[in-house]
Write a sequence for this structure.
C-alpha cells in the first residue's frame, strides 16, 4: 500500500512540475504575443518563469529559516518577548559557549589540515607500492559509515574498564598488554578533543585520498619527466610541480572538510555529549534549543555564530568558483 | 668525434622486445634524426638516452662516459617533448629558469641566459605570461627555450612539431635548423615524418620494429636505400614498387617482366639471383618519364591527376598499388588518358625476396 502511494505521489509530483513548465510557458507566449511586438525569444519574463520554482523553494527553505533565526535570537526563550542583545551578551559570557568556540577552532585547525595532508600523502605513496589499491580501499571504507556509526565503533576503541578488569577497548587492551595503565580516554580534558577528531579524520581522509588520487593521475607524465631532466629531485618535484598542480584540489578538499568540521555535531553528541570539555557549537545549540524545555533565543544565537563561521569560507569559495569560470 | 655511442642496446616491455640490439654512433655537433613509423621504438631510444627509461642490456655513452646508471640531470642533456610539458603554474620566465635555479646559478647568470634564449626564439614579450596564455607554436618555443638555457651538450627532441599546424611546422623546421647552426650542439631528433627527417638531418637513422633499418645522409638514403622498407619510407610521394620475376639472368644484367608488357633489361645482377626468382622493382615517381620511347616503357591509363603547381602527379592504373608518375606542373594530361611511361634503368632499385636491395 505504501509503495502504491509512493508511486502515486511520484506521478502526481512529476506531472505537476511538467505541467507547470508547459502551461506557464504556453501562457507566457500567449500573453507576450498579445501585448508585445517583440520577438518571443527575447522575452525577459521567460527566465523568471523557469527559475520561479527554484526561487520559491530557496525562499521557503533557506531565506525564511535564516531570517527567522535572526529574529528569534533577539527574543526570549519562547520567542515571545523582545530582549535586545541579551542573548548575545549571555553567549559571550557563558563558559560553555567560550569552550565551544575554542574547541571549534581546535577542530578547524587540526582536522582539515590533517585530512588533506594524510590524503595527499597516502594517494602519492599508494601509487608506488603493489598493495596500494588494497590500502586505498581500506582507507576509503570508513566513508561509507555515518558519523554516529563511526562514533559507536570508536567508543569501543576507547572503552575503559577499571584497572584489573579485562579491557574490552582495543586501545586500553594494547596498553595493558604492554604493561601500561588503562585510561578513560574520552574523559581526559583537552586531549579528549583530539580523540574525537581522530574519528572525523578517520572518515574524511578516504575522501581526500580518492580525490587526490584522481588529480594525481591527471598530471601529465611528461611534465614530471621534464622536471627530472631539469635536475629536480623527487622531493622537489613533489613540492614545486605536483603541489601547484594540485592546488585547486587541495583548496576544494580543505574547504569541504572545513565546512563539515564547523558543523560537527554527531560525533560529539554520541561520544561525550559535550562533557569533559569537548563541547562544540553545534552540540551546544542542540542542547539549548531542544533540551530542558528549549530556549529558542539562545539556540538561535548559537546557530548564528555557526553560520558566521561558515559564511566567509562560502564567500571565498564562491569567488574562487567564479574566477575559475571566467578563466 | 662521436658524442654519443650506443652499443647493442636492448629494451623489453614485458615480453615485447622493443629495441633489438641497436648500435649507433652520433657525431658531435651533428643533427641526427631517428625516423620510423609509429611504434618502432624511436621515443624509447631517445628516452633511454635521456635516462627516463631503464636499459635492459647494452650501453649508452655520452662524451666517452657510460651513462647507463646516471640520472637524467647528470647526463648533460635537455629534452623537448611533443606535448611541450611546460610547468603550467609558472611564467614563461620561470619555466626557462627552473633548471637553472636548481643548478644554483646566480640571479644575473639566470637572467642573462633566459633573455638570451628568449631573444633567439623571439619570445621576449612572452616572458611574464603563463603557458595557458600562449599558442601552440609559442609554447613549443618556450619548451625549446627551456632546453637552450641549460646549455646542454645534447638536445633531444621527441616529435616536437607534431602538434603544430602545417604552416607553423615548416617555419619551425627552418628555425630549428638555424638554431642548430647557432648553438653548435649535438641534436637528436625523433619524428615519424620523413619530410622533417630529409630537410633537417645531417644523418638519418631509419628504424623499423626496434631495429636500425639503415642510417646515412639524407641523400644517401634517398638514392641508395638498402631495403624495401627504407625505399618506401624515404621520399614523398612514395617509391613505386612493382612485383615481378626474373625472366633471364646473364653475367652483366637481368631481364625482367615489366607489368606483363615488355621484357626489360637491367644492368644489375647478383650471384644470389637466378632465373625465375621473385623480385620487386622500385622506382621513384620523378624517375619515370612520359615519352614516345618504347624501350623500357609501359603504357597505362591515368585515373587521378594531382596538380601541385610546381609539379603534377599522375596515378596510373595497374594491378596492386597505382604507379605514380611525376611530370611538369603545366602538364595537359587528363584523367582517362593512356600514356607511355619510360623507366630510367639507372634509377631502378631491385629488391630480392628478402626485401634487400641488390
Ligand atoms: N611504457 C610502456 N609499456 C609498454 N610498452 C610500451 C611502453 N612504451 C612504449 N611501449 C611499446 O614500445 C614500442 C615502441 O614505443 P615508442 O618508442 O613509443 O614508439 P615510437 O616510435 O612511436 O616513439 C611500442 O610498441 C609501444 O607499444
Ligand atoms: Mg613516440
Amino acid at each position: 500500500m505504501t509503495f502504491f502511494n509512493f508511486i502515486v505521489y511520484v506521478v502526481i509530483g512529476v506531472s505537476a512540475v511538467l505541467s507547470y513548465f508547459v502551461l506557464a510557458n504556453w501562457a507566457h507566449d500567449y500573453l507576450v504575443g498579445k501585448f508585445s511586438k517583440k520577438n518571443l525569444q527575447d522575452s525577459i519574463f521567460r527566465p523568471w518563469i523557469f527559475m520561479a520554482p527554484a526561487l520559491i523553494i530557496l525562499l521557503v527553505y533557506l531565506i525564511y529559516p535564516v531570517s527567522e533565526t535572526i529574529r528569534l535570537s533577539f527574543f526570549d526563550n519562547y520567542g515571545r518577548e523582545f530582549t535586545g542583545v541579551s542573548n548575545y551578551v549571555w553567549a559571550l559570557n557563558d563558559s560553555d559557549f567560550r569552550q565551544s568556540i575554542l574547541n571549534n577552532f581546535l577542530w578547524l585547525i587540526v582536522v582539515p589540515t590533517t585530512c588533506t595532508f594524510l590524503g595527499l600523502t597516502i594517494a602519492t605513496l599508494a601509487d608506488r607500492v603493489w598493495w596500494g589499491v588494497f590500502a586505498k580501499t581500506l582507507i576509503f571504507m570508513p566513508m561509507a559509515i555515518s558519523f554516529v556509526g563511526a562514533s559507536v565503533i570508536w567508543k569501543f576503541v576507547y572503552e575503559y574498564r577499571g584497572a584489573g578488569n579485562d579491557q574490552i577497548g582495543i586501545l586500553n587492551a594494547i596498553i595493558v598488554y604492554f604493561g601500561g595503565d588503562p585510561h578513560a580516554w574520552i574523559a581526559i580534558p583537552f586531549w579528549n578533543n583530539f580523540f574525537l577528531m581522530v574519528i572525523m579524520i578517520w572518515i574524511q581522509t578516504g575522501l581526500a585520498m580518492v580525490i587526490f588520487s584522481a588529480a594525481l593521475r591527471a598530471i601529465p607524465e611528461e611534465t614530471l619527466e621534464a622536471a627530472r631532466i631539469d635536475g629536480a629531485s623527487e622531493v622537489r618535484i613533489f613540492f614545486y610541480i605536483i603541489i601547484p598542480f594540485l592546488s585547486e584540489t587541495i583548496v576544494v578538499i580543505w574547504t569541504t572538510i572545513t565546512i563539515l568540521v564547523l558543523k560537527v555535531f554527531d560525533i560529539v553528541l554520541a561520544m561525550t555529549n559535550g562533557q569533559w570539555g569537548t563541547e562544540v557549537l553545534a552540540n551546544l545549540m542542540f542542547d539549548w534549543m531542544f533540551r530542558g524545555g528549549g530556549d529558542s533565543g539562545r539556540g538561535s544565537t548559537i546557530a548564528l555564530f555557526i553560520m558566521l563561521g561558515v559564511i566567509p569560507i562560502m564567500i571565498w569559495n564562491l569567488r574562487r568558483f567564479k574566477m575559475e569560470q571566467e578563466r | 668525434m662521436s658524442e654519443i655511442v650506443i652499443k647493442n642496446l636492448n629494451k623489453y616491455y614485458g615480453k615485447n622486445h622493443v629495441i633489438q640490439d641497436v648500435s649507433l654512433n652520433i657525431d658531435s655537433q651533428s643533427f641526427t634524426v631517428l625516423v620510423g613509423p609509429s611504434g618502432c621504438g624511436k621515443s624509447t631510444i631517445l628516452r633511454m638516452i635521456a635516462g627516463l627509461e631503464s636499459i635492459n642490456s647494452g650501453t649508452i655513452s655520452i662524451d666517452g662516459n657510460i651513462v647507463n646508471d646516471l640520472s637524467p640531470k647528470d647526463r648533460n642533456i635537455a629534452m623537448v617533448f611533443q606535448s611541450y610539458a611546460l610547468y603550467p603554474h609558472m611564467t614563461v620566465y620561470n619555466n626557462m629558469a627552473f633548471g637553472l635555479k636548481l643548478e644554483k646559478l646566480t640571479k644575473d647568470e639566470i637572467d642573462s641566459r633566459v633573455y638570451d634564449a628568449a631573444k633567439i626564439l623571439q619570445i621576449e614579450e612572452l616572458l611574464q605570461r603563463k603557458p595557458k596564455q600562449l599558442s601552440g607554436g609559442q609554447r613549443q618555443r618556450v619548451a625549446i627555450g627551456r632546453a637552450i638555457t641549460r646549455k646542454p651538450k645534447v638536445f633531444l627532441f621527441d616529435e616536437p612539431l607534431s602538434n603544430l599546424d602545417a604552416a607553423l611546422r615548416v617555419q619551425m623546421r627552418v628555425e630549428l635548423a638555424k638554431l642548430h647552426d647557432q648553438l653548435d650542439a649535438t641534436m637528436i631528433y625523433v619524428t615519424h615524418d620523413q619530410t622533417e627527417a630529409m630537410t633537417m638531418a645531417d644523418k638519418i637513422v631509419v628504424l623499423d620494429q626496434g631495429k636500425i633499418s639503415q642510417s646515412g645522409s639524407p641523400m644517401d638514403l634517398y638514392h641508395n636505400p638498402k631495403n624495401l622498407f627504407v625505399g618506401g619510407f624515404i621520399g614523398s610521394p612514395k617509391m613505386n614498387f612493382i612485383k615481378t620475376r626474373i625472366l633471364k639472368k646473364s653475367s652483366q644484367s637481368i631481364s625482367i617482366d615489366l607489368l606483363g608488357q615488355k621484357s626489360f633489361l637491367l644492368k644489375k645482377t647478383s650471384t644470389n639471383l637466378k632465373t625465375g626468382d621473385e623480385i620487386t622493382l622500385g622506382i621513384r615517381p620523378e624517375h619515370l618519364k612520359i615519352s614516345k620511347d618504347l624501350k623500357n616503357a609501359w603504357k597505362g591509363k591515368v585515373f587521378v591527376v594531382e596538380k601541385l603547381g610546381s609539379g603534377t602527379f599522375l596515378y596510373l592504373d595497374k594491378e596492386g598499388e597505382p604507379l605514380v608518375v611525376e611530370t611538369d606542373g603545366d602538364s595537359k594530361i587528363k584523367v582517362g588518358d593512356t600514356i607511355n611511361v619510360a623507366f630510367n634503368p639507372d634509377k631502378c632499385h631491385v629488391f630480392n625476396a628478402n626485401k634487400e636491395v641488390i
User: Anything to note?
Assistant: The interface with chain A takes residues 50-52, 71-73, 77-79, 81-83, 85-90, 98-99, 102-103, 146, 150 of chain B (CB under 8 Å). Chain B has two domains: 2-233, 240-351. Residues B 13, 16, 18, 36, 38-44 surround adenosine-5'-diphosphate (ligand 1) (CB under 6 Å). The first helix of chain B runs from residue 42 to 50.
